[in-house]
């Protein structure tokens, strides 16, 4: 009997144990789904951020952040896939974002990319590189798969004559531009200059000499088409641009985000039917002028104003269709839902269409680092969207411009640097070349092309990380990681100091002696680290940029924190030296109610 029982038990174990083990293995493989706590409705640990380049939608990004899960994943970052590394959402999307699957699992069809032009945008209105950097950069861009450059000079162009007042104090010379063009030609990179002819003319209209040409006298963004003098200015700028670019096949005329129309008093004297008629007549006139100089040149404008015209029911777009090529831009994580079928049906009327993705400058007005994830997803989903639009609506896509904005506009702060954003650009270009990035390509790009000692992070890591690479501009990339490390130390130190040295202590010279000593010890070390970073950052910046860039960047992102540290150090040193006795409470001059005088303003003060 015992023998039979043992046999039955062993038989049951032999059958059940493999089934149990297999079930546990399947559950382990699907653990992210089975045990997921990140339902769409759960937003307790969400971060919200707004989107780059103004649009009409007002939605938010939701990215959940479970600290324990992230910490568990982060134990061995060297062996992690880059998209599995814990992250803090620092980028814009304007849409609710759900957890993305690993990149190799995105198997949606993409457009054939072999014949597409792949242009890299150089936005020179902020932190324009020195010529020596282009000598390193252009061969690398060719290696990554770029076929051309979209160069937005703004005030870095060497305008001459009475237009010389427009140019930056460190603007490129004529010889500099000729060298840039020669370097591009040597590396088989076509050149498309971008010269704004309607909106985003802040660098011109901010000057008192041209302020009378503003569409709205308060704002220097938009030039008025209602004055003949505006065309004299624009045509002379075009003449100088064409003169210095004698063989270019393309010219981009901008024309995006034209916020003010039919505002200038002179507009009432002209026979414009509406704002759409004004826009079309202005763009048509400028385009025809360029064509009169260079009949074979292809002219581009951003798509957003054309889209508004078509949506408003304007039918007078026939001339534009024959004159310009629209460049459709958006920099969101998932492009697929951004444009509907109706949009692509309307734009299929154009003989060809380009699109614009981004590799930097679309993650917030004050952002220091371009992490790969957001920009690669933007590029990947653009390829998917282009496939859908080309197959459903026969949109003739012929090129992609990967944009890299240095400022959101001329008046705003510097955002990410070009040299430190090369990893993001590399992944964007390689996504276009291959259609998607899998595990092997991810490793090849990070380790071989970029020459990094680890695969670059796709999202911002929670902890301080150091990375070493060899690509052109790696020094600036590594410096940004040093910046993150110093800020991490700043946050830790100041969170401790603020517990014991508050604003009230500063105002009343009333301290906790022992705790202040502890704070001072920590602050000394932090101050030394911050001083070291300032020196290192300025030395690194001098390799790539003119003398004005390092001070501007430090004043934007760093000096306020450094001054706070110095202020706390000075106060504690002084207090420890002078304070040996403390007055009785209540503290003097601290018994009167706080009275705040309300500001007297009306809406007219804001207009």
From TrEMBL:
Residue intervals of the Glycoside hydrolase family 20 catalytic domain: 167-406
GO molecular-function term, one example from the UniProt record: beta-N-acetylhexosaminidase activity
Keyword list, A-Z: Hydrolase
GO biological process annotation, one example: carbohydrate metabolic process
The keyword Hydrolase belongs to this UniProt entry's keyword annotation: yes
Pfam families with a match to the protein in the record: Glyco_hydro_20 (PF00728)
Catalytic activity: Hydrolysis of terminal non-reducing N-acetyl-D-hexosamine residues in N-acetyl-beta-D-hexosaminides
EC number(s) given by UniProt: 3.2.1.52
The UniProt record lists the keyword Hydrolase: yes
Entries under SUPFAM superfamilies matching the protein: (Trans)glycosidases
InterPro entries xref list: GH, Glyco_hydro_20_cat, HEXDC-like
Protein family per UniProt: Belongs to the glycosyl hydrolase 20 family.
Protein name (database record): beta-N-acetylhexosaminidase
Species of the source: Adineta ricciae (Rotifer)
């Amino acid at each position: 009997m015992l023998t039979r029982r043992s046999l039955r038990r062993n038989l049951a174990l032999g059958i059940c144990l493999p089934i149990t083990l297999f079930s546990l293995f399947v559950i382990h493989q699907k653990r992210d789904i089975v045990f997921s706590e990140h339902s769409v409705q759960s937003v307790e640990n969400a971060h919200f951020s707004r989107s780059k380049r103004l649009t009409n939608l007002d939605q938010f990004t939701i990215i959940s952040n479970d600290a324990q899960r992230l910490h568990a994943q982060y134990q061995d970052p060297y062996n992690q896939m880059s998209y599995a590394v814990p992250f803090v959402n620092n980028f814009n999307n304007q849409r609710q974002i759900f957890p993305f699957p690993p990149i190799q699992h995105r198997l949606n069809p993409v457009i054939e990319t072999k014949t597409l032009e792949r242009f890299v945008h150089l936005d020179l209105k902020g932190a324009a590189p020195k010529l020596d950097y282009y000598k390193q950069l252009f061969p690398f861009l060719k290696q990554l798969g770029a076929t051309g450059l979209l160069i937005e000079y703004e005030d870095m162009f060497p305008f001459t004559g009475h237009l010389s007042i427009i140019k930056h104090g460190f603007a490129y010379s004529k010889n500099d531009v000729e060298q840039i063009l020669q370097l591009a030609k040597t590396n088989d990179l076509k050149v498309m200059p971008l010269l704004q002819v309607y909106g985003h003319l802040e660098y011109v209209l901010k000057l008192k000499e041209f302020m009378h040409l503003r569409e709205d006298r308060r704002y220097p963004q938009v030039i008025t088409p209602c004055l003949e003098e505006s065309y004299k200015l624009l045509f002379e700028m075009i003449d100088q641009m064409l003169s210095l670019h004698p063989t270019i096949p393309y010219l981009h005329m901008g024309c995006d985000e034209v916020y003010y129309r039919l505002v200038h008093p002179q507009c009432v004297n002209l026979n414009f039917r509406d704002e759409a008629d004004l826009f079309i007549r202005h763009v048509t006139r400028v385009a025809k002028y360029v064509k009169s100089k260079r009949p074979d040149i292809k002219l581009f404008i951003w798509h957003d104003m054309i889209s508004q015209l078509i949506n408003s029911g304007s039918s007078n777009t026939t001339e534009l269709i024959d004159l310009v090529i629209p460049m459709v831009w958006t920099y969101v994580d998932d492009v697929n839902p951004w444009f509907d079928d109706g949009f692509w049906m309307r734009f299929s009327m154009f003989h060809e269409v380009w699109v614009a993705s981004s590799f930097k400058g679309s993650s917030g007005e004050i952002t220091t680092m371009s992490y790969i994830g957001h920009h690669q997803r933007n590029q990947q989903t653009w390829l998917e969207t282009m496939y859908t639009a080309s197959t459903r609506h026969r949109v003739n896509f012929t090129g992609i411009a990967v944009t890299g904005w240095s400022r959101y506009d001329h008046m705003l702060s510097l955002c990410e640097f070009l040299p430190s954003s090369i990893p993001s650009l590399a992944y964007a270009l390689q996504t276009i070349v291959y259609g998607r990035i899998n595990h092997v390509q991810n490793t090849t790009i990070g380790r071989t092309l970029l020459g990094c000692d680890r695969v670059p992070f796709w999202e911002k890591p929670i902890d301080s990380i150091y990375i070493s690479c060899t690509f052109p501009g790696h020094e600036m990339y590594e410096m940004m990681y040093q910046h993150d490390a110093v800020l991490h130390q700043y946050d830790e130190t100041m969170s401790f100091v603020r517990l014991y040295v508050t604003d009230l202590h500063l105002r009343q010279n009333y301290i906790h002696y022992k705790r202040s000593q502890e704070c001072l010890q920590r602050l000394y070390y932090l101050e030394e680290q911050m001083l070291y970073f300032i020196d290192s950052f300025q030395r690194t910046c001098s390799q790539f940029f003119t003398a004005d860039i390092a001070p501007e960047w430090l004043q934007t992102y760093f000096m306020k924190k450094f001054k706070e540290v110095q202020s706390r150090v000075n106060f504690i040193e002084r207090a420890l030296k002078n304070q040996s006795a403390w007055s009785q409470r209540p503290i003097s001059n601290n018994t009167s109610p706080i009275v705040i005088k309300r500001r007297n303003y009306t809406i007219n003060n804001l207009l």
